[in-house]
Amino acid sequence: MARPTYEVEYEQMLLGRHGLAHRGGRHKNALMERSAYIILSRIRVQGPMSVGELSDAFGLDASTLNRQTAAAMRAGLAERIADPEGGMARKFRITEKGAQLLDGERERVVRSLDRVMKDWPDEDIAAFADYLKRFNTGIEQLSMRPWPRP
Prior knowledge:
Number of helices: 6
Distance between the termini: 40 Å
Shape: globular
């Protein structure tokens, strides 16, 4: 019998191919690019962040984050501000437009999930969410990049 982690790997691979959430840039029904969705989600929970802080949080080089934040700024989703705590580095914060589009995108994904799990009891959905959180937390511990949760 194969180890259960083989089943998890396979199901996780399949999950990544479905279009409920973003994948590989902009999904045809998505309101914003995947990178903007993730960056804005992080900034919303953590507050304004510099390129260096974003780089540390995501484990990406600064040039990648510069491209992604520049695209978010061009789209009017984020803006650069002086560090509210008086630091030297300028920080990015979500704009009103960014917050509205982020909320809309999140609602789009939740509606898709509602359709997929329409026959699931609430207890099963809550248990699945708990397992996903536990799974993500384990990944975050290994990578030493915890994700703040609201």
